[in-house]
Amino acid sequence: MTHAVIIGGGHAAPEAVVALRQKGWQGDITIISDEPHLPYQRPPLSKAYFSGDISADNMPIKKQVVFDKTNTQLRLGRRATSIDRQEQLVTLDNGDTIAYSKLIIATGTRARKLPIPGANLPCVHYLRTLDDVTQIRQQVAKDTRLLIVGAGYIGLELAASANKLGAKVTVLETVDRVLARVTCEAMSTFYQDLHRAAGVDIRLNSGVKAFERQGNAYQALLADDTTIDFDCVVVGIGVLPNVEIAQEAGLACDNGIIVDEFTQTADSNIYAVGDCSNHPNELYQRRLRLESVPNANDQAKAAAASICDKPKAYTSLPWFWSDQYDVKLQTAGLSQGYTETVVRGNVAAKEFCIFYLKDDVLIALDAINSPADFMKAKQLIPQQATFDKQRLADTSTPWY
Question: Is the pTM value of this prediction over 0.85?
Answer without folding.
Answer: yes
